[in-house]
Amino acid sequence: MSDAATLPRAEAAVTPVIEAQDLVKTYEVGRGLFSPPGVVRAVSGISLSLAPRRTLAVVGESGSGKSTLGRMLALIEPPTGGHLAIDGVDVTGVDGARLKGLRRSVQMVFQNPYGSLNPRRTIRASLEEPLLVNTDLTPDQRHARAVDMLTRVGLRPEHAERYPHMFSGGQRQRIAIARALMLRPKIIVLDEPVSALDVSVRAQVLNLLADLQQEFDLAYVFVSHDLSVVRHIADEVMVMYLGGVVEQAPKEAIFADPRHPYTKALLSATPVADPGRKRDRIVLTGELPSPFAPPPGCVFHPRCPVAIDRCRVEKPVLAGDGTRLTACHLAP
Length: 332
Ligand SMILES: Nc1ncnc2c1ncn2[C@@H]1O[C@H](COP(=O)(O)OP(=O)(O)O)[C@@H](O)[C@H]1O
Ligand SMILES: [Mg+2]
What we know:
By secondary structure, this protein is of the alpha/beta class. The longest helix has 18 residues, at 199-216. The chain has a domain at 15-105 and 185-260: Rossmann fold.
């Protein structure tokens, strides 16, 4: 009985579904006709580990590299450097056929569900497509799965024959989530999945995601520029700034006791649940620096309210006690 499929659950659970070491992604970008191309470091050396059925939230301002990290983890784009293992398999340098198999384990949901739903095809056709491409299921089986998944995301069987434009934004996102689930992945990378939705529908979609996580044993990488969105769904929070991680900790620690000045600033901009514990608002001045020319020392120092001389020259390393990591010279 050495078949991997017969391993007891507790034993299987210790293998992370995602393990990333020092992931880097650079892009060569033209800077006009007479300038040499520049190199953007969109992600500069990120390591992480995600256990099955857990949620890692990745937060930070627009331009911090969250989507780029998400696309690498979802095997949509290869990293420029570093190592990535999905479901225990090192994907760095694996061949096409093997990669195709692994791609079934990890799916991605985007902010705008129109990206994954063809406006000219019925919902049923969009849901069945991954099965058509990747499985040997019969047309009847594919249809049954599509309808089943639609009902699991809170829609009705008759919705299958309709077109994307006939749905609200929230319903379309439910359909995109159903599509991501068709191949029964272990991991879903959600890139700002509720950012385009009305506040009133946001909570419903977040609740749906939480229910589906239990039902399908999913691990989530949940990308959001808004910390308040991940407050309930996250287990662990990774805060990104200019391509790197400035702080990573269990959710409770991030919200109760943020240590990096950038995390404090992000948190101070989010609404407080308990108005009695009103926080002082920390307003960040200036913009995210250009990733073409990151500042020397700590990349956050030009905007940091507490920066000291050392921060201008020496880059802080991400360090801590195992559960809490902070990249700041002033962190406790
Ligand atoms: N395909 C690309 N080509 C060139 N630059 C890119 C590309 N994708 C992202 N970038 C750059 O990488 C940085 C991080 O972008 P992104 O990952 O989209 O951040 P976020 O999702 O946090 O807003 C930005 O400076 C962006 O302009
Ligand atoms: Mg993004």
